[in-house]
Design a protein that fits this description.
The complex is a heterodimer of chains A (561) and B (166). With 561 residues, chain A is an alpha/beta fold. Chain A folds into two domains: 155 residues, no CATH class; 355 residues, no CATH class. Chain A has 21 helices and 16 strands. Chain A starts with a helix and ends with a strand. Chain B has 166 residues and is mostly helical. Chain B has one domain. Chain B contains seven helices and one strand. The chains are: A alpha/beta (561), B mainly alpha (166). At the A-B interface, helix 1, strand 3, helix 4, helix 5 and helix 10 of A face helix 3, helix 4, helix 5, strand 1 and helix 6 of B.
């Protein structure tokens, strides 16, 4: 017993400190007349219980990292410069000029690379919201409270003096309940222990809502926070995450988010994104913006990786089925961790290419360690002979044909409830489109609602696979957004666009790479511009490049080529 | 940097200074390199570790813990400017749990409080009066929960909710 108390004591101390911290942030009192305290009723106190800690709402702010805007500015600058120096392209689509913009962004580590690529692909709000959702999932509100600082409300029964001190948090403000326990001494310990056994872990097991409902009036701020966050997660699950990204969607950098959708973003390492976030956000952005660029971002293929065959490769993803690929390719890692994926169904009419066997063939050709994410907005080609670098374009391709297909009228009763999790779901999959249009024809909804319903559909799928596997595995719902092996063209890294170069076509090929293994990328990619994103990145090795941006040095150009 | 990020950075630097001062007191050594100015730029934790290396076996556990804390705090500094707010908050969350387990003292400083609240405020904010809506929902849930079987699985419950909503 003493040992137990000894171990518990710093814990309790900490609890109190954290509670006071939150309390200082701004507490508000209110009367919860509907709720009654069980211990009070046991003690015969008929006073209306008071809710010490209750916050009405949870505002999700999701502040962007301002550095990303800076990168977008720099990219914009580079883009205008390249556009100024632009020369016509040849018939095969190869840039006739030797000076097209190849930009290398050097970041500190893999995670930074993944985040930056995610930001450039999705835009800031969507990316942050995906992270937020993953954070919520990872906290596992079903299993435990978000904040573990649940103050023990029961004094140790042996030590009455400690007991009079310990009621922290909830019972501090409402001192009447604490005194009530002390008053009727013999019975109070038992009733108080009841409170603790429920209130200790309000989210454990099946007692969740019972516990919340029974102890509304004794909840501590951290518990309130947990509850609200849990509600937020439920809301996200329910509404398909369309609320928040739209609320904050276009507030953040319009230039960045507009330009990033079409800029070709190549990054090494694997991106991890929740499937439903991508589909939902891209669908909504396609609807709201309606431009070609954002629509290109909408055509993310949802690829379910049949990851069962790769126990070593999957790791944390072992329980997951749904995945999103911007470009359907997998990392050709030297460790032999080859992840199997089901064939990508791509359906964009005349422009659709994405023949996965071809991709896989290329993947095997790729050298180790130089895998790069291909999130290009335009690289798709229907020409199979036009070189391996074109296989990566399954992410964004022109969408006019496929959008037309959405409007087709086909009568059908209802939205399909389940999309099989082990198959590829593309937003522009003909099957999905057919279902969508039939559902739309039946219900007479607009195209926006169709897209929403589709995203809800994908979300449903991911939810169900969540349910099938354990819920805890939902934390690893992350998907690898593809890593495509590139650079098999002999002259380096010129991914040839076969789409006609329009005015808003992006000239830049962007590679985001961590600073550690820079040499192969430098040799194969041969960038014209280097942006050093993190201050830790040393620029010294890069001096042979013409322009170097560094976040700590500003622009330091003219190093000489 | 946004104001909240600035707050976070200042708090971290303050905590670092406190930890260094504590370490100086604990080891009675003078760390010339670890001054306030260069905490932002240098690998000061490695420098301190290097200086302490000759006497590392003589250090108390508390001092070693302080050195480890310095490393973590410095990593927090770099994460602050590298990653997004959610990732940072998540990492900070982990750090706090770890530090709590190790009994790190910097958790109890005022700057640490500011750090945590600012990092949280970058992600979400709880504010407002307790809405009658929440309370009503909770109370109705209570009555419902009392009616229903007490050991209902939350997963089942939530999927039920979803279907009903749909």
């Amino acid at each position: 017993m003493t040992v137990l108390r000894k171990f518990c004591f710093p814990h309790l101390m900490l609890n109190r400190v954290v509670c006071l911290l939150v309390q200082s942030g701004g507490a508000s009192r209110a009367d919860g007349s509907a709720a009654t305290n069980r211990s009070k009723s046991a003690a015969g106190v008929s006073k209306a219980a008071s809710v010490e800690w209750a916050w009405a709402e949870l505002e999700v702010l999701l502040e962007e990292n301002p550095k990303w805007n800076l990168v977008m500015d720099v990219l914009h600058e580079i883009r205008t410069e390249v556009r100024h120096n632009r020369r016509p392209r040849t018939q095969t689509g190869q840039p006739a000029c030797s000076r097209c913009g190849r930009v290398l962004i050097v970041v500190a580590d893999d995670r930074g690379a993944a985040q930056l690529a995610e930001y450039m692909n999705l835009g800031g709000p969507a990316m942050l919201f995906g992270n937020w959702r993953r954070f919520l999932i990872s906290q596992r509100f079903d299993q435990r409270p978000l904040m573990l600082h649940v103050p023990s409300r029961s004094p140790p029964p042996a030590d009455s003096k400690t007991g009079s001190r310990t009621p922290a948090g909830a019972k501090q403000a409402g001192s009447s309940s604490a005194s009530a326990i002390d008053v009727d001494a013999p019975d109070s310990t038992s009733s108080a222990s009841v409170v603790v056994s429920d209130g200790d872990d309000p989210f454990s097991g099946g007692r969740t809502d019972n516990a919340i409902a029974n102890h509304v009036d004794t909840l501590t701020p951290s518990q309130w926070e947990s509850i609200l966050l849990r509600k937020e997660m439920e809301r996200i699950d329910r509404e398909g995450m369309l609320g928040v990204p739209q609320r904050t969607d276009r507030t953040g950098t319009p230039k960045g988010s507009a330009s990033t959708a079409s800029s070709s973003i190549l990054s090494s390492g694997s991106l991890t994104l929740p499937a439903s976030v991508i589909t939902a956000e891209s669908a909504s952005s396609a609807v709201t913006a309606g431009t070609k660029r954002s629509a290109a971002a909408a055509q993310l293929d949802v690829v379910s990786s049949a990851e069962s065959a790769t126990p070593a490769a999957s790791g944390s993803k072992s329980a997951r089925a749904t995945s999103v690929a911007v470009a359907s390719a997998t990392p050709a890692k030297p460790s032999g961790s080859v992840k199997r994926k089901t064939p990508t169904v791509s359906s964009t009419g005349s422009k659709g290419s994405a023949s996965t066997p071809k991709n896989q063939a290329k993947r095997t050709r790729a050298g180790p360690g130089t895998a790069v994410v291909g999130g290009r907005g335009r690289g798709a080609s229907s020409n199979a002979a036009s070189g391996s670098s074109k296989g990566k374009g399954s992410a964004g391709r022109g969408n006019t044909g496929s959008r037309g297909a959405v409007g087709d009228d086909q009568t059908g009763p209802s939205l399909p409830s389940v999309v099989r999790a082990d198959h590829t779901v593309s937003l522009f999959d003909p099957v999905v489109q057919q279902r969508m249009s039939s559902w739309a024809a039946a219900s007479g909804s607009s195209k926006e609602q169709q897209l929403r319903s589709l995203s809800a559909l994908v979300l449903t799928e991911s939810k169900q696979s969540d349910r099938n596997s354990s819920f805890m595995a939902a934390a690893s719902e992350d998907i690898d957004l593809t890593v495509e092996a590139k650079h098999s063209s002999p002259d380096g890294f010129t991914p040839a666009p076969t789409m006609p170069a329009t005015a808003d076509d992006d000239e830049l090929d962007i590679v985001i790479h961590p600073a550690g293994t820079l040499e192969p990328v430098l040799n194969s990619f041969r960038p014209h511009f280097v942006i050093c994103f993190d201050p830790d990145v040393r620029v010294i090795r890069l001096v042979r490049y013409s322009d170097v941006w560094s976040s700590c040095q500003g622009r330091s150009s003219a190093f000489g080529t | 940097m946004t104001p909240r990020m600035q707050t976070i950075q200042d708090s971290i630097v303050e905590v670092i200074d406190a930890v260094i001062a504590e370490l100086k007191g604990a080891t009675r050594m003078d760390f010339s390199e670890a001054s306030v100015g260069n905490t932002l730029v240098k690998h000061f934790d490695l420098a301190i570790r290097r200086e302490l290396d000759p006497v590392w076996h003589k250090l108390a556990g508390k001092s070693k813990q302080l050195v480890a804390d310095l490393g973590i705090l410095r990593r927090l500094l770099s994460y602050l400017i590298s990653y997004d707010c959610v990732t940072f908050y998540r990492f900070l969350h982990t750090v706090r749990t770890e530090a709590k387990n190790h009994g790190s003292l910097w958790l109890f400083t005022e700057a640490a409080n500011r750090l945590f609240s600012a990092a949280k405020a970058r992600v979400f904010v709880l504010h407002g009066e307790p809405s009658s809506e929440v309370l009503a929902e909770l109370s109705s849930k209570r009555s419902k929960a009392r009616r229903a079987a007490s050991d209902m699985n939350p997963t089942v419950w939530r999927s039920d909710q979803y279907i009903v909503k749909k």
